[in-house]
Amino acid sequence: MNGIRSIAYFMLIYAHLFRAYRYFGIDGDNEWVNNFLNNGSLCMDAFFALSGFLIGGQLFRELKNRQTISLRKFFTKRILRILPPYYIFITWQYFMLGSIQNDALPEIAEGMRAVRSRVIYDYLYLSDYIPGSMTHGWSLSIEEKFYLLLPLALLLLNRVKHRVGRLLLLSPFLLVPLLFRAYYYAYLTSQGTEIDTGIYLLDFYYPFHARMDSLFVGVIFSAVYTYFPDSVISYLKRPISRYAAAIGLLGLMAIMLFTTEGYPDHPLNPQPAFFVAVLRTLVGSLCWL
């Protein structure tokens, strides 16, 4: 898992560097290379799937050993791990932008003022729905909602005595986001609405309800590993596990080479197709694991 996380961090860095260069009109001529670099954003599916696996595994083991989850202990650990550095950073950013704003040109100062006015959405972890002052706060907002939902959901599912039944009851957390994306995509296209970058990001890519399947892929994998460890170990020793890993790797490469998240103002990137808007996040998460 540390290896996957390291690769994902590298992808995160090069994707943002590529997009920064693209913003200034610096592009290559090879569409496949452009897609590969732009699709470094698949790292987020890896981060979410790993988060679901690690947090889910922790909670499933506690349920298995104690038949309950200490919500106080879980939430205290999450709060101490995330909230202090996060709030320190966005508060520092707020005052830093304020000091720069005082010396900036009027049009730049107005933009900074607008950005600072949205900091409340960062403080409330709502920036996956309403853009805040920190552009990338959406992913932390998704994680925080996941931390609130998962232990409560697992406590309810633990009332089901059959282990397979618990796994089946986790499936809606995969299906609901997928069905939402499919329905909304069909609705927009039936209305003749162009799914441009803004719509794709704000309605398909950022919101928790549209992305939680990536997290619950990891949760379901952790449930299988916790409740059926012998079967998992037996599977990993068989050749089919290596074939599955190869298929996952090929799937990731295919997504990165042959799809684009869609920047309609750029000639090499048409608007997102059905696969990108509806299937990409779920398929990408499955390929990572």
Could you list the spans in which at least 5 consecutive residues all have pLDDT below 50?
264-270
Q: What is the domain tally? A: 2
The 3D shape can be described as globular
Radius of gyration from CA coordinates? 21 Å
What fraction strand? under 5%
Helix-and-strand structural type = mainly alpha
Sheet with the most strands, sense and barrel status? none
Overall mean pLDDT stands at 85
Series of secondary-structure elements, N-terminal to C-terminal: HHHHHHHHHHHHHH
The number of distinct β-strands equals: 0
Amino-to-carboxy terminus distance: 9 Å
Tally of alpha and pi helices: 14
* Helix percentage range: over 70%
Describe what this molecule looks like in 3D:
The chain has helices at residues 2-23, 31-38, 43-66, 71-101, 106-116, 119-123, 137-157, 163-170, 172-190, 197-205, 208-227, 229-236, 239-258, 274-288. It is built from 14 helices and no strands. Residues 264-270 have low confidence and may be disordered. The longest helix is centred in the first third of the chain and has 31 residues, at 71-101. It has two domains: 2-68 and 158-288, no CATH class; 72-144. The chain is globular. Helix 4 (71-101) runs antiparallel to helix 5 (106-116), helix 7 packs across helix 11 and helix 13 (239-258) packs antiparallel against helix 14 (274-288). Helix content is 76%, strand content 0%. It has 289 residues and is mainly alpha-helical.
